[in-house]
Automatic annotation (TrEMBL):
SUPFAM superfamilies membership: Actin-like ATPase domain, Winged helix' DNA-binding domain
Domain of life per record: Bacteria
Molecular-function GO term, any one: kinase activity
PANTHER family cross-referenced by the UniProt entry: BIFUNCTIONAL UDP-N-ACETYLGLUCOSAMINE 2-EPIMERASE_N-ACETYLMANNOSAMINE KINASE, ROK (REPRESSOR, ORF, KINASE) FAMILY
Name of the protein described by the UniProt record: NBD/HSP70 family sugar kinase
């Protein structure tokens, strides 16, 4: 059973206690009685009673049946009211902007996409994203007052304090875009800005519930290669909230090196497995994928064709995906050694389409590596969040801020 965060009985932090109770109920799909809540949170029976009364009146939890356990009065079960609150997640990608609407349980209830604005005109960027958010909420027929806020996942580097997208390498016209505050003003919602790899890791942690790992690495394979880290249930952001750039890790590229004597050829993992480069390698090996490799949208379409070839069992496509998985796995070994973690999760918009062939190869490259230092088992999984993992993670930033107990952060309020 997952470790539950402990509350306090001081009335001055009643808001904190609410999130303690809400977090415990959220992590228990079958619900909890008030007695169980007191036991798991360390709160007194009276405090639990007061807090649950508030949460029931707010519509965030509800009484749902009773259970009989031994002698005495049957216990009333409390469950999360998932449809009482919502959060919007936005992922800014070089090709498309993805939007998702999550309920309180983290379930995607609506999603959409728009083409990525060029950012030559920041007001146009805000207008495009703001209009899409409004449309998403309207189409889902959700009360605007039930939306807690908006999370944005963006390629780095970003300035989290200022809420500015600084200089993302794959978005050459996005420079110093003040996205957070402008979007908050346009939509009327609180807005959180996070680096995409960190947002993905937060989403994985938040949605895992009872099975959430205390320490893990989220290997994010999108237009670039990055790693989101969670240590002791907290995302590692770094001094400037730009942690996660792992593309410069040097690895043996194997057959991806593209030389007659490929074995032992070393290079940066990010360059070796860049989607546009893998598309070029696929073409050089005889796969017909179509499109211009210099065009981001065309690379995405070619990646779809590569995924179809993998699903059809094409040996060239399967082999290429496995080679990419192996190279990524070799890079991850260094991270596992450095942090002594026992779980690695692969995901991201480009990962999900090659995962069937890439994941087994990545897993083997990690667990069978002669360079692996930790002697404990290392679990290597694929994220269940699909290609929209960064957008889902962005929405989870809002839910995590609202539901996860921290002494310094109460429920988001407008």
């Amino acid at each position: 059973m997952a470790e539950h965060r402990r509350g306090a009985n001081l009335p001055s932090i009643g808001g904190f206690n609410r999130t303690v109770v809400l977090d415990a109920v959220r992590r228990s799909p079958d619900g909890l009685s008030r007695v169980e809540l007191a036991s798991r949170t360390g709160l007194s029976a009276q405090t639990v009673s007061n807090v649950t009364r508030f949460l029931i009146e707010a519509g965030m939890i509800a009484e749902s049946g009773t259970i009989v356990s031994g002698r005495g009065k049957p216990r009333t079960i409390l469950r999360l009211e998932a449809g009482s609150r919502y959060a919007v997640g936005v992922h800014v990608d070089p090709a498309v902007v993805t939007y998702v609407l999550l309920d309180l349980a983290g379930t995607v209830v609506a999603s959409t996409t728009t083409s990525t604005p060029t950012a030559d005109d920041p007001s146009e960027v805000v207008r495009t994203i703001g209009t899409a958010i409004d449309g998403l909420i309207t189409e889902a027929q959700v009360d605007v007052d039930a939306v807690l806020g908006v999370g944005i996942a963006s390629p780095g580097p970003i300035d989290v304090d200022a809420g500015v997208v600084l200089d993302p390498p794959f978005l050459p016209r996005w420079r110093d875009v003040p996205l957070r505050d402008a979007l908050a003003e346009a939509t009327g919602y609180p807005v959180l800005l996070e680096k995409d790899v960190t947002a993905a890791a937060v989403g994985e942690m938040f949605l895992a519930g009872e099975s959430s790992a205390r320490n893990f690495a989220f290997v994010y394979f999108g237009t670039g290669f990055g790693v989101g880290l969670v240590i002791d249930h907290e995302p590692v952001r770094g001094v400037g909230s730009n942690a996660g750039d792992a593309g410069h890790i040097m690895v043996d590229q194997g057959a991806l090196a593209g030389t007659p004597d490929a074995a032992g050829s070393r290079g940066e993992v990010g360059a070796a497995v860049a989607p546009d480069r893998l598309v070029q390698i696929a073409r050089s090996r005889g796969l017909s994928l179509g499109g211009d490799p210099r065009d981001v949208a065309a690379v995405d379409r070619a990646w779809d064709a590569l995924a179809e070839a993998i699903d059809a069992g094409d040996p060239v496509a399967v082999g290429l995906a496995a080679e990419a998985g192996t190279v990524m796995g070799r890079a991850v070994v260094l991270i596992v050694n450095l942090l002594d973690i026992d779980r690695v999760v692969f995901g991201g918009p480009f990962w999900s389409r090659i995962a069937s062939a890439a994941l087994p190869a990545a897993r083997q490259a990690i667990v069978d590596s002669p360079l692996l230092v930790p002697k404990h088992p290392v679990v290597v999984d694929e994220s269940g969040r699909g290609a929209d993992v960064a957008a889902v993670g962005a929405a989870c930033l809002v839910l995590d801020a609202a539901l996860s107990p921290r002494a310094s952060a109460l429920l988001i309020r407008r």
